[in-house]
Write a structure and sequence with these properties.
single chain, alpha/beta, Rossmann fold, seven-stranded parallel β-sheet, 41% helix, 17% strand
Length: 244
C-alpha cells in the first residue's frame, strides 16, 4: 500500500468530483492535504471528510491569475512547511460550436484549464515553496480526440499534454516531476447516463468499462504523487477503457 506520510499536497479544484476523491484518498494514505476551491460550503464539506490532522482549506478563484501567488504562499505559511506535491484538478468543460467560439470564450477556458496551471507550476518550482516533489495535472481524452463543440476544451487539455513534457525537462534539475492523467468520461456524483447526449453515450459504449470511477483516478494520482513513481517524468497516462 502506498504511504504518503510526511507529504504535504496542494489539491486544486478540490470541490469537484475528482478533486474531492483525490483529497480524501491522499489523506487516507497519510498526506497532509491543502485543498482549494471556489465554493466555501463544498470546501468545508471536503475538509470534514479528510482523514488525519493538519489539513487546511483555502477558498480561491483561479481566474484571478495575478493573485495566485497569495494562494500558494498561504498554503506554505499556515504551518511553515513546504509543499511536496501539487494536484491540478481544477477545470471547466464548456460546449460551444465553432461559429460561437470567439477569442474571449477561448481565453476564458484557457485561463482556468491552462494558464492557472502554468502559473501554479511556476510558483511551485520556487525553492521557498518546495524543494522538489511531484505535480499531477488532469488532462482529458478530449485532448487527443475531442468531440463536436469541444474546441476550446480540447485545445486547453492538449496544451497541458505538451506542457508536462517541457516542464519535466526544465524542472528535472529541481527534482520536480510533472505528469498528467488523461481520463475519458468520469462518473460524477449525480451523473445519469440516460440523459447524456448521444455522442457521450456512444463514447461510453466504446469504452466498454462504463463510466470511470473517480476513486480509481484518485489512486493513480496517489501513485504519481508518491515516491513509488520516482522514475516517471513528462508522461500522459490514458484511462479510457477500450477506446482507440
Amino acid at each position: 500500500m502506498l504511504n504518503l506520510k510526511n507529504k504535504k499536497i496542494l489539491v486544486l479544484g478540490a470541490t469537484g468530483t475528482l478533486g474531492k476523491s483525490t483529497a480524501i484518498k491522499l489523506s487516507q494514505l497519510g498526506a497532509k492535504v491543502v485543498i482549494s476551491g471556489r465554493d466555501k460550503t463544498k470546501l468545508d464539506d471536503v475538509l470534514s471528510k479528510l482523514t488525519g490532522d493538519g489539513h487546511y482549506a483555502i477558498q480561491f478563484d483561479l481566474s484571478n491569475l495575478d493573485k495566485i501567488y497569495e494562494l500558494i504562499n498561504l498554503s506554505v505559511s499556515f504551518d511553515n512547511e513546504k509543499l511536496t506535491g501539487l494536484v491540478y484538478c481544477a477545470g471547466t468543460m464548456p460546449i460551444r460550436p465553432i461559429k460561437n467560439t470567439k477569442s474571449d470564450f477561448l481565453h476564458q477556458t484557457m485561463v482556468i484549464n491552462y494558464y492557472a496551471f502554468v502559473e501554479m507550476v511556476r510558483l511551485y518550482s520556487d525553492k521557498r515553496v518546495s524543494e522538489g516533489g511531484s505535480i499531477v495535472a488532469i488532462s482529458s481524452y478530449s485532448s487527443i480526440n475531442g468531440d463536436k463543440g469541444q474546441l476550446a476544451y480540447a485545445a486547453s487539455k492538449s496544451a497541458i499534454d505538451s506542457s508536462v513534457i517541457v516542464m519535466s525537462k526544465e524542472l528535472y534539475s529541481k527534482n520536480i516531476r510533472v505528469n498528467a492523467i488523461r481520463p475519458a468520461i468520469i462518473k460524477g456524483e449525480t451523473t445519469n447516463i440516460e440523459i447524456l447526449p448521444t455522442s457521450i453515450k456512444n463514447i461510453i459504449e466504446k469504452m466498454k468499462t462504463g463510466l470511470i470511477d473517480p476513486n480509481i483516478i484518485a489512486e493513480q494520482i496517489a501513485f504519481l504523487i508518491s515516491d513509488c513513481s520516482s522514475g516517471v517524468y513528462g508522461r500522459c497516462f490514458d484511462v479510457k477503457g477500450y477506446l482507440s
